[in-house]
Amino acid sequence: MHYLEIFLIFFKMGALIFGAGHALASAIQEESVDRGWLTEKEYQDGWSAGSGLPGPISIKMVVYVGYKAGYQKGKRTGGVIGALLSTVGYILPCSSLMLITSLLFSRFKDSQIVQNVLKGIKPAVLAIIIVAAYRFFRTGSISDIRTSVITIASLGLIIFLDISPVFIIIGAAIIGLSYFLF
After folding, report:
1. Residue 144 pLDDT level (bands cut at 50, 70, 90)
2. Both 134 and 148 in a single domain?
3. Does position 84 have pLDDT exceeding 80, yes or no?
4. Are residues 81 and 41 in the same domain?
5. Which residues contact 176 (CB under 8 A, 6 or more apart)?
6. Do 99 and 30 lie in a common domain?
7. CA distance 29 to 138
8. What pLDDT score does 22 carry?
9. 33 and 110 housed in the same domain
10. What is the pLDDT of residues 4-56, one digit of tens each?
């Protein structure tokens, strides 16, 4: 039943969560922490590690949380099964819906109704991203002067100098090593 639960939870998220990976972040965090699959700190650690890897954060978090949930049932093998089931559960509804949407959008993309619907969705997606950032902030990711400086410097470098987030993550990881060294 545990593996079926993993599949169904991620199937539900893949079918019902709208927006970018950051929108999914709060839903995954809530579901996984409430179910005891991992702690808030483990979730943040996974998010931080995943942000340093290429690819969409949402699928990386789905794999990570699925692994942690499955690991509770069957150690490493259970973790791999959990990661696979969470991934398939997550991508099945959204990829199926995106295929249908692609077929319809290519036919009706110039429709004023479609344009108006998109105009309404965009601010809602922005709000979802802001809520995910707020929840991440609230759980203590900025806890001292170093993390405050990393946050402010990262924002400034991205906004004003258009520095790639890849370089921001690498730089922040190097600064993070200072906790070990000092």
Report:
1. confident
2. no
3. yes
4. yes
5. 150
6. yes
7. 13
8. 67
9. yes
10. 999 999 999 888 887 666 667 778 888 889 999 999 889 989 988 888 888 88
| pLDDT beyond 90 at 139 | no
Looking at the structure, tell me whether residues 14 and 102 fall in a common domain.
Answer: yes
Are residues 148 and 134 located together in one domain of the fold? no
Q: What is the tally of structural domains in the chain? A: 2
Q: pTM of this prediction?
A: 0.62
Considering the domain architecture, whether residues 111 and 95 belong to the same structural domain is answered as yes
**Is the pLDDT score of 65 beyond 90?**
yes
82 lies in which domain range? Answer: 2-141
pLDDT tens digits, one per residue of 145-181: 888 888 899 999 999 999 998 899 888 888 888 877 7
* DSSP for the chain, written as a single string: -HHHHHHHHHHHHHHH--SSHHHHHHHHHHHHHHTTSS-HHHHHHHHHHHHTSSS-HHHHHHHHHHHHHHHHHHHHHHHHHHHHHHHHHHHHHHHHHHHHHHHHHHHHTT-HHHHHHHHHHHHHHHHHHHHHHHHHIIIIIS-SHHHHHHHHHHHHHHHHH---HHHHHHHHHHHHHHHHH-
Residues 38 and 54 in one domain: yes
